[in-house]
Every structure is written in C-alpha cells, then in structure tokens.
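Session log. Operator J.P. requested a structure for one protein chain; no other inputs attached. Running the standard single-chain path with token output.
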Amino acid sequence: MKIKASDIHVSKAVNLNYLLHVPEQSQANPEKLWPSILFLHGLGESGDNPSDVLRYGVPQYIAEQPDFPFIVIAPQCPENTWWPELSDSLDILLEQCCGSLAIDTKRLYLTGLSMGGFGSWYLGTIWPGRFAAVAPVCGGGYWFHGFPERVAALKNVPVWAFHGAKDDVVPLTASEEMVNTLGNCGGNVKLTVYPDANHDSWTETYNNPELYNWFLKHSKS
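Structure written below.
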C-alpha cells in the first residue's frame, strides 16, 4: 500500500452570541482607530439571550454612555460551557472584529468577572501577545489548566486584579495565588482588595473610571 502525504483542511461552524459597542463619535472620524475591550461575563449571564450580558460589568456601565471611548466586544457563553472551551470561537470572533472594525490592535484589553475572571486569566496566558493589559475580577486559575505556574506567560503583560475580601464564592486566595506567582516571576501585576465586598467586586471595579484610564496607559510595542 502506498502512503501519500496530503494536506487536510478541517473547518467547523461557529455560533456565538455577542454584544458590540462602537463609540458614537467614531462615525464622525471613520479613519480613527479605537482601543477595544473583550469582556467576559460571569456564570449567571450564560445562555442564549444576549441581553443578559447587560446585567453587570462593562456592558452595564456603558449602557447609558454611548460616548464610551472603547469598542467593546462582549460574547455570551452558552449554558453548561466555560470560557476555556470557547477559545477557538473567541479567536475567530476577535479576528473578525479586528478585521471589520476600526480597532487599534495595539490597544486591545481583556477583562471579566467571576467565571469571566477565570476566563481572563486563562485567555491571557494562551494569547499573551494579543492583549495590552488584563484585568481579572474575582477570578483565579484551576490546577487542571496548569495554574498557578502557567500565569508566568503573562509576565510581560500588565495585570490588575480585583477581589472582595469577604468573597464566599471565589475566595480571595484565588486571586492572591495568581498575583503572587506572577509577581514572583517578575510580572507587572497589582491586586486591589475591597475589604467589605463579598462576591460582587465588579460593581465598584467597573464603575471606576480609573480602570479605563489604566487600560489606556498601556499599548503593545
């Protein structure tokens, strides 16, 4: 039997709901490139109704701010699915958005809350060259994904993590372990702890303009 080498091309369909915010002022300046945020929601917003993603985080913050100066991409995780399982689909979504929208790819940022905080740590480590900065909120990393050791992949990416001291859903130690490990390998990382917050550390985080100012201080070289 003769064996012949050949190329095999495999494709798959991708179906992923997402919300998209484009600054209103972009219409007046179509040549301008805009910073962009990939936002990953928490477990409670999973499903097949994209409006659920508006409940918390960046989408909630910008709902009444059409002039918010970022392009925001907010995908929705289907039920019984976790963000690491969607990495291929998210890769395609980002490629499509960067190819069709006025996104400054040097100023692409990643953030998420709870399940999305875990997703931010994970996606940041598989694409460390893609994001200019990462901000995980009440997240962490699972040992079966190689954490905390794999967080070293983010040593050249600025990271700002947030967590509530009284969180009884995702313990503060989940963020502390990631931040300490990254700091020990020379990473540019900091952790903000809200002393009176339980699991909801996202409201104070995403309602604070300082987060968005911090994003804009960072750009990929």
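Operator note: The chain has a mean pLDDT of 93.
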